């Protein structure tokens, strides 16, 4: 049986993760954003994907310069090619996973 404290913590965690994702939609629902802000926000998906990709292909440790992980760095190449050609994220993820698995099998 789940205690009341655990249930409260789960509900609060849900609220904390839900608010920053839903609140912007609520606040801007019936408002027009300035063109400068719209132009800035148009770059966010690209920068977020780049940051996630870069963090997954690099190994960083305190006191050392970051280094590229060879298998992951090679797997990025066919994955990006698939994204550029097909614009299909699901297919790109599948290609990335299979490429990484094959490269790990070989190396």
Automatic annotation (TrEMBL):
Pfam families: AzlD (PF05437)
Sequence intervals crossing the membrane: 6-24, 36-57, 63-82, 89-106
Domain of life: Bacteria
Cited InterPro entries: Brnchd-chn_aa_trnsp_AzlD (IPR008407)
Swiss-Prot/TrEMBL keywords: Membrane, Transmembrane, Transmembrane helix
Protein name stated in the entry: AzlD domain-containing protein
């Amino acid at each position: 049986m789940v205690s009341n404290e655990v249930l409260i913590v789960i509900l609060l965690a849900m609220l904390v993760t839900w608010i920053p994702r839903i609140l912007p939609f609520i606040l801007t629902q019936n408002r027009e954003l300035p063109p400068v802000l719209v132009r800035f926000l148009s770059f966010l998906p690209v920068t977020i994907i780049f940051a996630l990709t870069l963090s997954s292909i690099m190994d960083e440790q305190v006191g050392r310069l970051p280094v590229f992980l060879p298998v992951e760095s090679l797997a990025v190449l066919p994955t990006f090619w698939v994204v550029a050609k097909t614009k299909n994220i699901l297919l790109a993820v599948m290609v990335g996973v299979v490429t990484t698995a094959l490269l790990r099998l070989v190396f």
